[in-house]
Design goal:
The complex is a heterodimer. By secondary structure, chain A is an alpha/beta fold. Chain A has one domain: Rossmann fold (3-Layer(aba) Sandwich). Chain A has 10 helices and 11 strands. In chain A, the strands form 2 sheets. Chain A has a 6-stranded mixed sheet, with helices on both faces. In chain A, strands 1, 2, 3, 5 and 6 form a 5-stranded antiparallel sheet that branches. In chain A, a hairpin with a 2-residue loop joins strand 1 and strand 2. In chain A, helix 3 crosses helix 4, helix 4 crosses helix 6 and helix 6 runs parallel beside helix 7. Chain A is globular, with a radius of gyration of 18 Å. In chain B, helix 3 runs antiparallel to helix 9, helix 4 crosses helix 6 and helix 9 runs antiparallel to helix 12. Chain B has a single domain, classed as MetI-like fold (Orthogonal Bundle). By secondary structure, chain B is mainly α. The longest helix of chain B has 37 residues. Chain B has a two-stranded antiparallel ribbon. Chain B contains 12 helices and 2 strands. The radius of gyration of chain B is 25 Å and the shape is globular. The chains are: A alpha/beta, B mainly alpha. Chains A and B meet through helix 2, helix 3 and helix 6 of A and helix 7 and helix 8 of B.
Chain lengths: 256, 306
């Protein structure tokens, strides 16, 4: 049986200067599923996530070895344009970071620079509906995005991401700055989104990973302080019958 | 085992003389600077009133005549304002695009190394005495212009002074704009890049608008420096009021005129003497108006981020 993976990594390592932050990660992330990356602070979860859309390019002295395969193409191949790659792999950040523009313009901007030609009004509505935000903002689309609450801002960031129709959405602790109700809404939204997108989410919150994800990658640092994936599999299995002792300790809350 | 701090329960006010002293000193410093400014404006206004009270001088003459020679009844302030406007506009036309471009380069494109070298150099440029710029204009730029325009250009001309004035305020605008661009949070850039934006799209469409209030401040300071600049125009633009907006002509700006006339022998209570204060007051009003207009523009178009 051939499974079409959203992203595959082969011996992916990420270095900052002489320091190896993430070491030898080989995982296959399934399409239209939610994959959570968990692990203690500083284990390289965000670094790994940012390798999937080449955001680490902006960190001086960073270097990537190994492969990140998208449809069989290595994202770090010689002919890959990182700008093109990011258009296919969207990202939602830890702290909501809407642009200091109107709600409407926040969504329209990304679509416009990506050469969107259709009806902008329709796209804005569709994207806001997709992010479960339309009903709350439809009467004040011209208002600044900064007038919204934190949870609304985060959903706006999701809306602008789906407006450019990526294949994969990366989420870097998208709910860590939000209150429990906003967090729940984001999680519900993720379940909606996975019908059309593959989602990879970094989270500190183990309940969130257990609740919301289909697959989980457990990361941990080794003696050289390099992070690696120590266990990867279906979330249910990983949380109930972990094979690695360290995973068991972590998910049962014995440390971390 | 808990360490328990021995603490009295006395919550009554404690005297803190150091606090009060510092507060008084800081207050005095604030009051002094405000007082000096008010005193200058007051003195300016007082002497200028004598000029405006002269029966021969009318507002109509002040704003419609095109010659300025108060001693013989010619009160056309435009003869000086035109030169101030022409040189300042040239300066801004040079400094704004170049300054913004270098700010965007330094903040968004330059490597850490390039930036750590270029920024201090830029700030040193801002410290060159203006009289040096003046002679640079007269002895270096003017001959080049003379080669280009031949007989069309006068030896003293507003173009040369304006160009060099633009070079003078360029580092100021570049440096202040760069600070403003740099203050835009990295998360906004990351958000833009994650949408598949190129560096240029991110710099010009996300970072620049977000930094607009700081850039506006830079432009305001730049314009004010240009309007108030004296040495460059006194040396290179010409000595003698001339109502002209042609950059190739010689003309004297408001500041250049004040510098030249006040350097000569003037007796108190003559119209020539009081007229200088009238010019200074006009200069003050021009700068004030420009500040207000630019502030309005900035508030209208800025994109506020928290």
């Amino acid at each position: 049986m051939e499974i079409n993976y959203a992203i595959e990594t082969n011996d992916l390592s990420i270095h900052y200067g002489n320091f190896t932050a993430v070491k030898d990660v080989s995982i296959k992330i399934e399409r239209q599923k939610i994959t959570a990356i968990i692990g203690p602070s500083g284990c390289g979860k965000s670094t790994l996530l940012r390798a999937f859309n080449r955001m680490n390019d902006f960190v001086p002295n960073s270097r990537v070895t190994g492969e990140v395969l998208l449809h069989g193409n290595n994202l770090y191949g010689r002919n890959v344009d990182p700008v093109e790659a990011r258009r296919r792999i969207g990202m939602v950040f830890q702290k909501p970071n809407p642009f200091p523009k109107s709600i409407y313009e926040n969504i329209a901007w990304g679509a416009r620079i990506n050469g969107f030609k259709g009806s902008m009004d329709e796209l804005v509505e569709e994207s806001l509906r997709g992010a479960a935000l339309w009903d709350e903002v439809k009467d004040n689309l011209k208002e600044s995005a900064y007038a919204l609450s934190g949870g609304q801002q985060q959903r706006l960031c999701i809306a602008r991401t789906i407006a450019i129709q990526p294949e994969i959405i990366l989420m870097d602790e998208p709910a860590s700055a939000l209150d429990p109700i906003s967090t729940l809404r984001i999680e519900e939204l993720m379940q909606e989104l996975k019908k059309n997108y593959s989602i990879i989410i970094v989270t500190h919150n183990m309940q969130q990973a257990a609740r919301a994800s289909d697959f989980t990658a457990m990361m941990m640092i080794d003696d050289n302080r390099s992070g690696g994936v120590i266990e990867f599999g279906e979330t249910r299995t990983l949380f109930t019958r972990p094979t690695d002792k360290r995973t068991e300790d972590y998910v049962t809350g014995r440390f971390g | 085992m808990l360490f328990i701090m021995k603490r009295s329960f006395d919550l009554s006010k404690k005297p803190r003389p150091g606090e009060s002293l510092i507060e008084a000193l800081l207050f005095a410093a604030g009051v002094l600077s405000v007082f000096v400014t008010v005193a200058i404006v007051f003195e300016l206004g007082k002497e200028a009133m004598l000029f405006f009270a002269d029966p021969d001088m009318t507002w109509v003459k002040f704003f419609t005549m095109t010659k300025w020679q108060p001693g013989i009844g010619q009160y056309g302030i435009w003869a000086l304002v035109s030169a101030t406007m022409t040189t300042s506009v040239i300066a801004i036309l040079i400094a704004l695009p170049l300054g913004l471009a270098s700010a965007v380069y330094l903040s968004e494109y330059a490597s850490h190394r390039a930036r750590s070298i270029l920024k201090p150099v830029l700030e040193i440029l801002a410290g060159i005495p203006t009289v040096v710029y003046g002679y640079f204009a007269l002895l270096f730029v003017t001959p080049i212009l003379k080669n280009i325009f031949k007989d069309g250009i006068q030896v003293y001309n507003m173009l040369s002074a304006g160009l060099v004035m633009g070079i003078m305020i360029l580092p100021l605008i570049a440096s202040m704009s760069e600070d403003a661009l740099n203050a835009v949070p990295r998360s906004l850039r990351e958000g833009a890049y994650a949408m598949g934006a190129t560096k240029l799209e991110t710099s010009l469409q996300i970072v620049l608008p977000a930094a607009l209030s700081g850039i506006g401040a830079a432009v305001i300071v730049g314009i004010s420096r240009a309007v108030g600049e004296t040495m460059i125009v006194a040396v290179a633009a010409g000595a003698g009021p001339n109502f002209s907006f042609n950059p190739l002509d010689a003309a004297e700006t408001m500041t250049g005129h004040i510098a030249r006339i006040s350097g000569g022998d003037l007796s108190y209570n003559t119209i020539d003497y009081t007229s200088l204060f009238a010019i200074a007051l006009m200069l003050f009003l021009v700068t004030l108006t420009l500040n207000l207009v630019s502030q309005w523009i900035v508030n209208r178009f800025r994109e506020r981020y928290e």
